[in-house]
Amino acid sequence: MPELPEAEVVARQLSTRLIGGIAQDWQVGRADIVREGFPTLSWYRGAQIVGVARVGKSVVFSFSRGQDRRFMVAELGMTGLLLFTLPSARYEKHTHLALRLEGCQETALHYWNPRRFGRLHLLDRTGLDRFLARRFGCDPLTVPWEAFRSLVARRRGRLKALLMHQQAIAGIGNIYANEILFRAGLHPSRQAARLQEPAIRRLYETMQEVLGDA
User: What range defines the domain where residue 187 resides?
Assistant: First the structure.
């Protein structure tokens, strides 16, 4: 299951190879994969990719046409991949979006997801803001110390559950939650609100260290 570090690496790699590319054609294999915005698909034909970034465990593509800006959020889910080329023809049935590109280092981008746990969302700025506010909490790599301390201090649940709660802290799953707590010397079942400030500080610094290293 991809978590924050994997999504961050994907976003960085895509950014170096796709920025400036023009989306000449979109082929959708399964319309139900596009959870929001399918009727706006025609707008994206001829639009330029001007940004690729990670939010939580997802990748957000920014497209521009003149002064207008729209976005595609790609949720990777358990088996989702963003590929420049497919491994072989027998995998084509799991390709739910094929994007033909010009003007960048790659000629195509494929959204491949055999188990279909991930989804695509085509959104304008207002829709993106609402989507992010609804789905994601603070980013663990950039959240300020004071905000993190306040978040932990007011949570009554267990530490591991807090770290994995996407609407509280976006991007951490089971693997990295375990590693963070192990390195910080904190029991996963410990109550978050009962931590003293030195322990919260240790958790904060360890979280950023583990995710940064990964």
Answer: 145-213
Which of 66, 84, 77, 63 has its CA nearest to residue 33?
77
List CB contacts of 201: < 8 A, sequence separation 6 or more. 145, 149
**For the chain, what is the domain count?**
2
**Domain CATH code at residue 159:** 1.10.8.50
Other Cβ atoms closer than 10 A to 78:
12
Residue 166 lies in a domain: yes
In a shared domain, residues 113 and 155: no
The pLDDT tens digits for 194-205 are: 999 999 999 999
Phi-psi region of 108 (alpha: psi -120 to 50; beta: other; left: phi over 0): beta
pTM of the model: 0.88
pLDDT digits (tens, 9 = 90+) for 94-138: 777 888 999 999 999 988 776 666 788 999 999 999 999 999 999
